[in-house]
Amino acid sequence: MADEPENAKELHPLYMTVVEDVIRKIHDGIYRPGAKLPSVRKLAAEYGVGYRVVHYAFRALATRHYLYTEPKRGVFVNPGLKTGRFYRIGFVYPGTNPMADGAVMQAVYNCAYEHLYEAVLLDNFRSGENVTELIRRDLHFDGFLISGDVNEPLLQELRQVPVPYVVLGNYAISAEHPQVRVDLLHQLSRKLAGYFRPFRGKRIAALMGDPSYEADRESIQALRIAVAEAGAVIADELIASTNSDGYPECCALMERNPDVLYIHGDARSGYWKYRMLKPEGPHPYTICNYRRSDSPAGSLYNGIFDQVICLNLGNSASAVKAVEKLLNLIEERSL
């Protein structure tokens, strides 16, 4: 963090002990909204730390809206807070690298911050830890957003945790789970149709994601609608789905000599391999739909695709809706 002192790593375990305990005491009503906290000297003695550690903890708590300082009067609890809240939500992201959804996470963080909440990422991408165990290890959260690799068994486990949650994304789950979805079918089909119209009457092939996922099934359906609206041609044998890099599927599609190849998301690496390993093979006009269209010079994919598009399908807006829905559930729960 840019605002940490040079020896922040040494202070971190100490000042975080103070931070977590103050938040717990605000939650439990020991430090009530508007109340004055004990002096730095008393807290330093209570926690067995130096004055500087307490000062840094106060600074961190003020940044997160828990406290404020009045010169010559002392440090006070934010009067806008409510007893019984930690003012912290967890963004649970199981089974998938969370770096892929940075824009969504920023939207979650910013929206939570505007409502006086801190958003904290909880993921098991590297550890493989059971998600429920990950959550139960620290229940100092008022609620959870859940995205990533989500399924019904996981959510049934999470229902045993006594904290409200909202699922963010398009998943085939039961109606008992609060969910905020993206209008993927209509938005994607409408936007793709515009890119396909110049190819009226042409054969379009597509390298798509894994249809075992709800979002990928909707994307395939949106593709079909978009091609039909554009007056282009597509058939079952021109649509390949993959749950890996897509290289074998890409090779099979190229044998059908399509006029246009549309690549959806992560399958782009399969076409890159095809171009590297089969430079003499067919090279149709290629449209790649990926999260970023502003790849820097020297990118691995430079010159591989004829057109790189980045369709804003409202993922960040849906993230804001999910945060607001979760905060409403937290409010209802505390009434």
Average predicted local confidence, pLDDT: 91
As a percent range, the share of strand residues is 15-25%
Main sheet overview? 5 strands, parallel
Distance between the termini: 36 Å
Structural class label: alpha/beta
Can you tell me the residue ranges where pLDDT is under 50 for at least 5 consecutive residues?
1-6
Number of H- or I-type helical stretches: 11
What is the tally of beta strands?
12
Lateral arrangement of strands in the main beta sheet: 4-3-5-6-7
Rg for CA atoms: 25 Å
Tell me, briefly, the overall form: elongated
Report helical residue fraction: 40-55%
Commentary on this structure:
With 335 residues, this protein is of the alpha/beta class. The chain is 41% helix and 15% strand. It is built from eleven helices and twelve strands. It has helices at residues 8-28, 40-47, 51-63, 102-114, 131-136, 152-158, 184-196, 214-230, 247-254, 268-277, 315-334, and strands at 67-70, 74-77, 88-93, 118-123, 143-146, 165-168, 179-180, 204-208, 239-241, 260-264, 285-289, 307-309. The strands form three sheets. The protein has a five-stranded parallel sheet with strand order 4-3-5-6-7. A five-stranded parallel sheet has the order 9-8-10-11-12, with helices on both faces. A two-stranded antiparallel sheet has the order 1-2. Helix 8 (214-230) links the parallel strand 8 and strand 9 (239-241). The longest helix is centred in the first third of the chain and has 21 residues, at 8-28. The radius of gyration is 25 Å and the shape is elongated.
